[in-house]
Each structure stands twice: as C-alpha cells, then as structure tokens.
Write a structure and sequence with these properties.
Tetracycline Repressor, domain 2; about 75% helix; Bacterial regulatory s, tetR family protein; DNA-binding; about 0% strand
C-alpha cells in the first residue's frame, strides 16, 4: 500500500526547485540539493519524480500554461497592442507581488534556455502564433512596424518585464510592483515594436 502523499512536503519540494533554479540555474541544481533544501530524503523525492528534468518540467508547464492562457485572453479582449501589453505586464507584476518566488522562477525559465520542457517547443509555437495576432492588431492600430517578425514580438514583451521583475526582486525582496510601473514597462515594450 502506497503511503499517503504529504502535501506540505510536496509544496516544500516545489519551492526548493524554484529557489534553486533561480539561485543557481538549471545546471547548478541537483536532486540532492533539492531534497536537502526541501527537508526530505532523496528517496522521498524519487518516489514522486524519476529525475531532475521531470521535477522541473512539471513546474515549468504549470507556469507556461498560465502565461499562455493569460496572453490569449489579453490579446482577444484588447483593442490595441498597448492594451494587451499593459494587461499582460500588469498581471505579471501582480503575480510577482503575491508570489515572488514563482515570478522569479518563471523569469529564470524564460531566460535559461537549458531548462527542459517536453512542451517547450510547442509553447514557443503557440507564442509565435499569438505574436502573429499581435502583429496583425498592431498593423491595424499603427503600433507595430509592418516589418516586425513574430520572434521579435515574442522576445521583447517577455524579456523586458521578466528581467525587470528579476532585477527588482533581487535588489528589494519586498518590492511591490505598481500600476504605474506596469504602464511604463508596457510602453517600453510597445516602443520596441516600432
């Protein structure tokens, strides 16, 4: 008979993975370091996850799915690129306010291309398709240069807000992002499309 899963231990494991990935990058973490930080034995960890890759993938997929769904909604409900960018940046900032380690983890995942994910290629394809929608909207509203390509649209709005979050939370762990900052960062992103 399998032992009952301890939700607190599993949550500690997830937090340990996020913190270690943020602090040391994907290559700098191991099952042993995760188990030590989470306060569990490596055997307990292996009971639920067969490898470091599997452990990280679960968290990456959860974060990516949330971002993609949020972005889809923001694009479909916006009448301008700025509006979509602002909603997206605002949501990221509010998420960082309430879940700073999750936001730093997500930023680290976007910045560290070595982080494995079975669905990463598929997620990037989805982001490219969403970027095409943003380009179409931006051409209509004259917010985007018609020569813009989807990869530019993917790179700019993810690099700038995530780097902003990462740097600020490194300098001030108690930082609370504001509406005004979200507007300013969204403006910077949209200006990058011109």
């Amino acid at each position: 008979m399998a032992r009952i899963t301890d939700p607190e231990k599993l949550e500690n494991i997830k937090i340990a993975v996020m913190e270690l990935l943020v602090e040391h990058g994907y290559g700098g973490m191991s099952i042993v370091s995760v188990s030590a930080k989470a306060g569990v034995s490596p055997g307990y960890l292996y009971k639920y996850y067969s490898s470091k890759e599997e452990l990280v993938q679960e968290l990456v997929e959860t974060e990516m799915d949330s971002i993609i769904e949020n972005l889809k909604f923001n694009i479909s409900t916006s009448s301008s690129v700025f509006e979509a960018a602002y909603k997206t940046v605002y949501n990221l900032f509010m998420y960082a306010n309430s879940h700073p380690i999750n936001a730093k983890f997500t930023a680290a995942v976007f910045m560290d291309i070595k982080v494995p994910s079975k669905e990463k290629a598929e997620n990037y394809k989805i982001l490219v398709e969403l970027a095409k929608q943003i380009i179409d909207l931006g051409i209509k509203t004259k917010e985007i240069n018609p020569r813009a390509i989807p990869m530019e649209i993917v790179a700019i709005p993810f690099t700038i807000p995530f780097r902003y979050i990462s740097v600020y939370l490194e300098v001030d762990r108690n930082k609370k992002f504001t509406l005004e900052e979200a507007k300013r960062v969204a403006e910077i992103c949209v200006k990058g499309f011109i």
